Amino acid sequence: MNVLHLSGDPKEIGRQHGEQGKQEMINSMNTYERLFYEFQGIDWTDVKERAKIHIPAIEAFDIALLEEMEGVAEGSGMTFEDVLALNARSEIALTGDAHTSFSDGCTSISTCSPVTNDTIMGQTWDWKGSQKDSLLMLNIEREDRPNVSMITEAGIIGKIGCNDHAIGVGLNALHSSQKTKGIPIHLGLRSILDTSSLHEAMANVQEGQMASAANFMIGYHEDQRGGMALHVEVSPYGIAVTNQDTSYGVHANHICSQEIQMKVGDNNNLRYSDSEIRERRAKQLVTQAIQEQQTITDETFKTWLSDTFNAPNSINHYANEQVPSHRQIETVFAVVMNLSTNRLHVCDGMPAHDPFETYTITKQ
What we know:
By secondary structure, the chain is an alpha+beta fold. The chain has one domain: 4-Layer Sandwich (Penicillin V Acylase, Chain A). The protein contains 12 helices and 14 strands. The chain has helices spanning 10-20, 22-40, 44-51, 55-61, 63-76, 80-87, 89-93, 185-193, 198-203, 258-264, 271-291, 298-305, and strands at 2-7, 108-111, 120-127, 135-141, 148-153, 160-163, 167-173, 214-221, 227-235, 238-241, 248-251, 330-338, 343-347, 356-360. The strands form 2 sheets. It has an 8-stranded mixed beta sheet with strand order 1-4-5-6-7-8-9-10, with helices on both faces. A 6-stranded antiparallel beta sheet has the order 11-2-3-12-13-14, covered by helices on one side. Pfam families: AAT. Residues 1-21 are annotated as: Disordered.
């Protein structure tokens, strides 16, 4: 995975991203252009037109996001509309007809006090295996906003990671039938990483600003006071916190909140054969550790994310040849974030087979 170190104002950060990650962006564009055309019959020109409906909402929400995407386009030599389409790919790929849309995977787990002294979050990211060649780790240093470390698909300016104010965010895709012209969820993820407190992070998603549904695993640690991690299902019609026991939480790729489900619809037709099993397995692993009074650490999370129970539809996910090809997804990377120690452990590949590398978040 290519690691980029970016700094400056939003436009310059974007320019460096596009320039240094150009080949990964080309890989990503090729993947999505092919997927959208082969399985939804949408050519890239139409994809870009669909993405443009989000511009007014983004401009009103945080114009720096637009400026950074403009910089990515400038640095990569692509058009702004290309970059915008990448950042709105979930709104295009994961909403609408369940038979033609795609399905991201991902299993997320969080623990905090009193289960663990540290505030720890971890997840797999399951998607098309070809996207491994499109991944970047971005280390962003700024003077006016928190420093950020995140793993993303090249060209997408928000995804999974944490910042130097001990805010972290993870993503579980949710396949729904409804979307709006609001903020694409990947930009919502970035807006959380640009905050310095839990209440700021929640304020950025609580009023239905997001254009589509997703689960955001949002964590925060506050020195000696401990921390908290919330699994927040976001949607254009409001949010729902789904982990009632705030000491731990798990989530996969189906909508847990009945209220959210009623408003946006849950089109995950693999819910009971895949997502439900992964979520229940994750909960089983956590509760077993608690009952056995195990000391839960970063290493414990790595073991959980490596779990192959019920393969291929396991937490460490393998491509399932029994489902349509556009739904054959696998674990492309995994990450464990310790918000108490400012450490990020990244597995470039499947955690059942590939090692984790450890990074320390740079503080201002």
